Amino acid sequence: MSITLPDNSIMLKPNFTFGVATASFQIEGANTEDGRLPCIWDTFCATPGKVLNGDDGSVACDHYHLWKEDVQLIKSLGVDAYRLSIAWPRVMDEQGKPNEKGLNFYRNLMEELKANGLKVYATLYHWDLPQHLEDKGGWLNRETAYRFVEYADLVTKELGSWVDSWATFNEPFCAALLGYEVGVHAPGLAKPEYGRQAAHHILLAHGMAVPVIRKNCPNSDVGIVLNMNRTYAASDKAEDQFAALVRETLDNQFFIEPILNAQYPKLLEKVLPHYLPNVLPGDMDIISQPIDFMGMNFYTCNHNEYDEQNLYRDIKKEGVEYTDIGWEVAPHAFSELLINLNKQYNLPPMFITENGAACADELKAGEVDDDQRVRYLHGHINAVNDAIEAGVDIRGYFAWSLMDNFEWAEGYSKRFGLTYVDYETQQRTVKRSGYAYRDLLLSRAK
Ligand code: FCB
């Protein structure tokens, strides 16, 4: 099995960007080195019962020390670009002053990426909020949005010359909802009214930061990355159709609509008014700043039926394929979601900023034969191609992930990499999927 695209695919043309993605907390390690401050994920990991096997980010993939080799690994995959995130607690001290050692890590890394002909896609916030800000209320505190703008200002001034594309946030849904409403991610708070308020402050921080980044980096693109799911109704019954609509509204529209249309979804005013955040005058204009691109992270789909209390309830579908993390493999849902959004909104250029599969990989005789991931990537890359053919303006695709890493509450138990990481030795081994991805990319005409 290989990963292929139709010969005439736009994705094979030179201006379509292929890459691999990672995030700071998931790979860097060195979480007390060179003045890096504690972040909410350090605290969460240290809280018994929160992360599987008590895993933490102290070493991770040791990328903080192995970055130079890792750039060669990225290059060896034949990609055009690398998507990484900056660790806020590494580059700014509690007083808001730059941490030069932390900044130097990113300067060296980015310089090396550029020297190897790779484009740099940087995300400012992939969930590692400095703990001292959480101690003041974190994303429930509107002030954190102002602190984020100061951080964004510092980083985009210091690192801007290397960065082709800035994303303010990765997945506000996960940062806000999983962190403050469901509590399965840091900081682990769980109150129904918290999630949407945290989300509003994150979106506000995004909107306030956009003009600052534009001023500091006039030649870079600026956007945001959302995770999105396609939800199917469990049956044709009107109540199940409604359940699916509510679910997509909460997961997707709640985030995309304020950014593109300056409002929270009207449906919520009717069916879940207590879910609407406290919005101050002017906030929606700030949040809906024009952006150069929207990133979409896509992994799976949901099936929902009506539930009297919560309006929707997940059901497991029979006869479909799942990955090792229990997520259904649904490439058709990917193209449908993109095509639906393109009908519903005036979308900016889209980038698929994450897509990938967790598999129960094993290293045998120096090789990892991850057939399911190869099939997953083939299906989803072709789903992107289908969406492009149906008229969606998609400019790039990033596989999640460059290498196995710290998968949040699942610790190191779930492997998403195109490269296998032996956490004892830190040895990296490109999996069959990594080679299949490389072969697709090398097949492109230069
Ligand atoms: C996304 C995250 C990313 C990774 C993948 C599997 O929600 O952005 O860090 O954990 O899921």
Structure description:
The longest helix has 25 residues, at 192-216. The chain contains 15 helices and 13 strands. It has 446 residues and is an alpha/beta fold. The chain has helices at residues 24-27, 40-45, 63-76, 88-91, 100-115, 131-134, 143-159, 172-182, 192-216, 238-261, 266-271, 283-287, 331-344, 371-389, 432-442; strands at residues 17-21, 81-85, 119-125, 165-170, 221-227, 230-233, 293-297, 301-307, 311-314, 350-354, 394-400, 419-422, 427-430. It has a single domain (10-229, 246-298, 326-442), classed as TIM Barrel (Alpha-Beta Barrel). It starts with 16 loop residues before the first strand and ends with a helix. The protein has an 8-stranded parallel barrel with strand order 1-2-3-4-5-7-10-11, surrounded by 6 helices. The chain has a 3-stranded mixed β-sheet with strand order 6-8-9. A two-stranded antiparallel sheet has the order 12-13. Beta-D-fucopyranose is lined by residues 23, 26, 170-171, 174, 227, 297, 354, 400, 407-408, 416. Pfam families: Glyco_hydro_1 (PF00232).
Number of strands: 13
Mean pLDDT level: 98
How much is the radius of gyration in Å?
Answer: 21 Å
CATH top level is Alpha Beta
Biggest sheet character: 8 strands, parallel, barrel
Estimate nothing, just give the exact number of structural domains. 1
Labels describing this entry:
three-stranded mixed β-sheet, 446 residues, eight-stranded parallel barrel, 15 helices, TIM Barrel, alpha/beta, binds beta-D-fucopyranose
Task: Chart the SSEs and their pairings.
Layout: E1 17-21, H1 24-27, H2 40-45, H3 63-76, E2 81-85, H4 88-91, H5 100-115, E3 119-125, H6 131-134, H7 143-159, E4 165-170, H8 172-182, H9 192-216, E5 221-227, E6 230-233, H10 238-261, H11 266-271, H12 283-287, E7 293-297, E8 301-307, E9 311-314, H13 331-344, E10 350-354, H14 371-389, E11 394-400, E12 419-422, E13 427-430, H15 432-442
Parallel strand pairs: 1-2, 1-11, 2-3, 3-4, 4-5, 5-7, 6-8, 7-10, 10-11
Antiparallel strand pairs: 8-9, 12-13
